[in-house]
Design goal:
Number of domains: 2
Strand content: 15-25%
Oligomer: single chain
CATH class of the largest domain: Alpha Beta
Distance between the termini: 28 Å
Number of helices: 11
Order of helices and strands: HEHHEEEEEHHHEHEHHHH
CATH topology of the largest domain: Nucleotidyltransferase, domain 5
Structural class: alpha/beta
Number of strands: 8
């Protein structure tokens, strides 16, 4: 499904955020032949968190129209018992929903796990007893998906968290992670100066009021404050959520002004 997400996003950006049903079907069936009906794919995309809406003449890509300041963000952090999703699993999830610079909701849970290496306990402070009787992987991941909805997924070093979660969801029969993604680490590098951009350093340098580093909810909360700091320095030409996503992934290191894009 990842190629479907990417193909649709490219098409939406080339067509001012809207594509007709014929174009939608062409893109979908270029990357998958598993489904015969485009409405089935649409519902799967929605269930995965991909921000797409049906309109009279086709489909609408929400981030192209939503102002980034007022959009909904889900800032997530995970702790795992290893670095590779095909041989390891999530052991703790922490997340906050934020909008307009304010936290709207929070989520945290341990995840049942039979194997916890000693070095993970030393780094995180999580003990095997903490995980006993916790929600199963599938239950915890489903709860997270429901909590996130179609919000923009944010994490510090998001490629790790998003890749690990998406692989874990797929392995547990929950599809993949289709939410649009912003990396708070990459965004920080583009919006304010710091000697280092690791979360532990930023917690200290920005005087972030959190408790324990390397615990999921605490680190998710810290990443929220990093995101909030970045929002103070977003260039004026960034108007929509899609602008923000493209800005955060741009290879350009300078923050020079570009031609302002009209808000739709």
């Amino acid at each position: 499904m990842q190629k479907v997400f990417e193909g649709l996003t490219r098409a939406f950006r080339k067509n001012d955020g809207i594509i007709d049903k014929e174009r939608f079907d062409t893109i979908v069936y270029k990357y998958t032949t598993l489904f015969e009906r485009s409405d089935t794919i649409y519902h799967l995309l929605k269930a995965s968190g991909y921000p797409i809406d049906v309109i009279d003449d086709g489909y609408r890509y929400a981030p192209y129209f939503n102002g980034y300041k007022s959009d909904l963000y889900c800032i997530v952090d995970i702790e795992t018992n290893g670095s590779k999703p095909h041989t390891s699993q999530v052991i703790e999830i922490g997340a906050v929903l934020a909008q307009d610079g304010e936290i709207k909701d929070r989520f945290e849970t341990f995840v049942e796990c039979a194997f916890l290496p000693d070095y993970i306990t030393k780094v995180t402070g999580i003990e095997p007893s903490d995980l006993k009787g916790a929600p199963s992987q599938k239950e915890a991941l489903l709860m997270l998906k429901e909590f996130m909805g179609e919000s923009i997924f944010v994490a510090h070093n998001a490629s790790f968290d998003a890749t690990f979660l998406s692989a874990s969801m797929y392995r547990n029969g929950l599809g993949e992670l289709g939410n649009m993604t912003v990396c708070s680490l990459d965004l920080a590098k583009k919006t304010f100066e710091s000697e280092r951009y690791g979360l532990a350093y930023l917690i200290q340098s920005l005087d972030i009021p959190t408790t324990i580093h390397h615990r999921a909810y605490s680190d998710a909360l810290s990443a929220f404050y990093v995101l909030k700091k970045s929002f103070e320095n977003i260039p004026e030409y960034v108007k929509t959520s899609d602008d923000l996503i493209q800005f955060s992934t741009s290879s350009k290191k300078t923050r020079s002004k570009k031609k302002t894009k009209n808000v739709h």
